[in-house]
Design brief:
Length: about 210
């Protein structure tokens, strides 16, 4: 909750009912004066975000390591949607994937500030950033609601229900804008409602 209060100071759109349970362990090494960072690390086994008494999102297996300025920084964690108390019936796609139609999650990993090959004299080192997102969203509408509660809504004027398989990667160099991702989004029985259409769009299987 202390970390959540810190985040709320910079994200006023966070749901007021949002609460967090869990422990994040921090460690680091510094030297010299003024202080020079040698290494920093954070680790958490499980953090649960709640809206009131209802579990909203779980962050598990969080690991973050940051080396000195010329070294890499790595981050990895899993986002899991807790099971609904009154789950909807599982779709055929969810059953074929071995799920129960209520749980889904994403595995996210990132590597930043990775110095490339030794640059020529007078030419600054090139740093690259890579982010991988892999997983399955069995109930996309619940993830949209979670994003809304966290103050970062994905949708504006539209809504969607159904399942998505996600496999995306972003890669760019320092100083460049965030690029469009490469990879795939595979829809399973997705229904999209748009304000300009009277009837919803149904995507039984789309890629």
């Amino acid at each position: 909750d202390d970390l959540l209060a810190f985040c709320r100071a910079f994200s006023p759109n966070l749901n007021d009912a949002l609460a967090a349970d869990g422990i994040v362990r921090l460690s680091g090494t510094v030297s010299d004066w003024p202080v020079v960072q040698e290494a920093l690390a954070a680790q958490a086994e499980r953090i649960t975000l709640r809206s009131g008494n209802a579990p909203l999102l779980e962050i598990s297996k969080l690991k973050w390591n940051s080396s000195p300025a010329n070294g890499p920084a790595t981050l990895s964690f899993a986002l899991e949607q807790p099971a609904a108390k009154n789950p909807e019936p599982a779709s055929a796609a969810e059953v074929s994937n071995g799920g129960e139609g209520v749980d889904s999650g994403l595995l996210i990993s990132a590597v930043g500030a990775q110095t490339a090959a030794q640059p020529k004299k007078g030419v600054p080192a090139v740093r690259t950033y890579t982010v991988h997102v892999d997983g399955q969203l069995n109930h996309f509408e619940r993830w949209l609601a979670t994003a809304q509660a966290l103050g970062h809504p994905f949708n504006s004027g539209w809504d969607a229900h159904g399942a998505l398989d996600v496999k995306l990667v972003w890669q760019w160099e320092a100083g460049e804008p965030l690029p469009h991702p490469a990879g795939s989004l595979v829809a399973h029985g997705v229904t999209v409602r748009l304000p300009v259409l009277n009837e919803p769009l149904e995507l039984s299987a789309a890629r």
